[in-house]
Amino acid sequence: xxxxxxxxxxxxxxxxxxVSRSGASAANVILIKLRDPGHDVFPVNPNAxxxxxxxxxxxxxxxxxxxxxxxxxxxxxxxxxIVHQCAAKGVRRLWIHRAMGSSLSEKTVEMSRxxxxxxxxxxxxxxxxxxxxxxxxxxxxxxGALPS
Length: 148
Description:
alpha/beta; Rossmann fold; two-stranded antiparallel ribbon; 5 helices; 7 strands
């Protein structure tokens, strides 16, 4: 899993779904954390045209040139729709936010795998790794939720 996450972070074009107009969401933090080291990031929010000083897109298919991966910080129901969009656009990497109010559900993981989409969370590996993600990585390894 570590290698898969690190390999995923070598891709340049990453969409972040669930970026908030208020700027106060985990998706906004992830967007900035991925943008700062040089990824081409694309905020996705159907209710905005610009967020964090960047053009914002209503969905994955509307991003010109496509993306290599998608981070979703949305409800499980919205994440299910994003899985469909990723499958239709040939996106093979989906990173589902797993904290409180998680985007993760068994159904989204199953749908992703059936569509050939890799699921994971690269934020546990994107340097500098914050204390929250270090703790989650440790806990997921301890409990077996993070495959070796």
